[in-house]
Amino acid sequence: MFRPVRSVASATPSYDPGSRRPGSRRPGSRTWRLRSVATVGALALTAALAACSSSASGSTAKSPLVIADVAPFSGVDAALGPIYLVSCDGTANAINSAGGILGHKVSCTSVDTRGEPADAVPAVGNLFATNKNVALVIGCTSDEAASVVPIINQHKTVMFCMTGQSEFDHVKYPYFYRLVPPDLAESYAMTVIAQRLGYKRIALAFGNDIGSQTFVQPALAALKKVGIKVVANETLDLTANTFRTEAAAIVAAHPQAIMTEALGSADPTLFSEIKQLNGGKMIPIIGTSASISPAFYSAAAKAIGAKTFSASFHADNLVTATSGPAYNAFTKALLAVKGKVSGAQTGNFSTYFTAPGAVHLYDGMVLAALSMVAAGSVQTAKWKPWITKIGDGVPGAVVVHSFAQGVAALKAGKQIRYIGPGGPTSFDAYHDSPGIFQIDTYSPTGQVVVSGNISPAQLRAVQP
Fold first, then answer.
1. Is-contact 450 46, C-beta < 8 A?
2. Quick one: what percent of the chain has pLDDT higher than 70?
3. Looking at the structure, do residues 100 and 153 belong to the same domain, yes or no?
4. Which residue has the higher pLDDT, 8 or 209?
5. Are residues 126 and 251 in the same domain?
6. Structural domain boundaries enclosing 131
7. Does one domain contain both 81 and 167?
8. CB-based contacts of 219, cutoff 8 Å, min separation 6
9. How far apart (Å, rounded) are the C-alpha atoms in residues 441 and 5?
């Protein structure tokens, strides 16, 4: 029986890891197709050599500090960029309302990677070539992280990334931070969900992009370990407008559920065609945390009906707060910019409150801002070491849940530990703080409903 979720907002440094809430993943990507790794690598090297100083380190007194949202704003993953930008604008507004960072105002800018490594490299190069006050980068999804993280790191600019690629588990980039788990951990979480629901026959349907395909092999291995049979394994071309062949293969295999991540219009189209071919009945869906977003819910509900979708759907997600002071500060920050971000959803806006990218990037931005205040400097070399001190806490630190609260405590001469809506951090040597999983569903009106938690022990039990 699933345990009820405990609000992260009530957590202290002795926080119970068995009770956290959602955070969406470092979502998908598009396949490199004709663009070779060698070409992308050459572009990355060229861009990296174009400039080599930290942008924020060169800021003049009281100059504005820029947070760059490096993510897809066009292409099949175009929904990701606006989610992060809503979070960025809301966070910047909250910081500025509290007096800014050491007198500096904060603003956000968007960098459209188009979900393509070869497009992302020159876009990031242009960011640094044209802006000397980049204090922080957020986003960097699995679509483009492998190509742009080395460039951002070369510029000595701190980044909070949403990529789940396992290469970042063991390759150390000093300026790279991540508050979300590797993709293979999500594959294990999806397997736990299937196991809990009693499924014995599973179909896989993942997009042909880099980020989505990273789930497949770990899922196959985990499902095999727990004795769940994979009866179909379909790869979806995210540029296609129909998946009739794949849907027919899935229906013919008679799975009890479908594990999937195919962003953009792919999954909703697949769901619609499966329902049509299956006599009007939907096969249950197990999604990744990328499916916890207003855009995904709206598209899927439109495709097969809100009641059908909500009754058929489960997803893994990272535990985040659903009440308390951290949650209240976060939701207030986002609501202050509702309707102001181009491409962002206004209907079901509250889904942003549980969208992993919105939650965990907010925490990263607040951590960075408080680190600058604690260091008394916006020079990256001086404030970067404070990220882990304030995130993980030090003996005697008081817990704070917002930028304003943290600044007040620092002015009072106190050491602080920031615990935001994404829960407490625990950074490792690679600056990873992956968090704990929970299980989410949707109500027929599009509200995210927490239906259970997944403990680290349960993840280990399905890990090959």
1. no
2. 87
3. yes
4. 209
5. no
6. 8-181+327-418
7. yes
8. 187, 190, 191, 204, 259
9. 14
Evaluated on CA atoms 165, 167, 169, 175, the torsion sign reads negative
Note the pLDDT tens digit of each residue in 346-395.
777 888 898 889 999 999 999 999 999 999 999 999 999 999 999 999 99
User: Could you tell me if 295 and 338 lie in one domain?
Assistant: no
H or E stretch covering 304: helix 294-304
Spell out the residues 6+ positions from residue 77 whose beta carbon is closer than 8 angstroms to its own: 27, 28, 29, 30, 71, 115, 141, 143, 209, 263, 264
Residues 332, 310, single domain; the answer is no
For residue 54, what are the CA distances in angstroms to 120, 187, 378, 379?
19, 36, 11, 8
My answer on whether 19 and 136 are in the same domain is: yes
Which residue shows structure tokens 């299980």? Answer: 439
Q: What is the pLDDT of residue 3?
A: 30
Name the packing angle between helices 325-335 and 356-375 (round to 10°).
100
Extract the tokens encoding 280: 């009007």
Residue 427 within a domain: no
Q: Which residue has the tokens 């907010």?
A: 362
Based on the fold, state whether residues 222 and 277 are members of the same structural domain.
Answer: yes
- Cα–Cα distance, 16 to 7 (Å, whole number): 10
CA distance 305 to 212: 25
CATH number of the CATH domain containing 216 = 3.40.50.2300
CA dihedral 289, 295, 299, 302 (to 10 degrees): 110
Q: Are strands 285-287 and 313-318 parallel, antiparallel or unpaired?
A: parallel
pLDDT digits (tens, 9 = 90+) for 155-195: 999 999 999 888 898 888 999 999 988 888 899 999 999 99
- Determine the Cα–Cα distance for residues 207 and 215; give it in Å rounded to an integer: 10
Each residue of 412-462: pLDDT tens digit?
999 999 999 998 998 989 999 877 789 999 999 999 999 998 987 898 899
Which is nearest to 215 in space by CA: 225, 205, 224? Answer: 205
Find the length of the chain: 464
Which of these, 255, 293, 253, 250, lies nearest to 271 by C-alpha position? Answer: 250
DSSP state for residue 420 in the 8-state scheme: B
Same domain, 359 and 408: yes
Tokens of 86: 């809503």
- CA-to-CA distance for 144 and 127, rounded, in angstroms? 15
Structural contact between residues 141 and 28, judged by C-beta atoms closer than 8 angstroms: yes
Q: What is the mean pLDDT of the chain?
A: 87
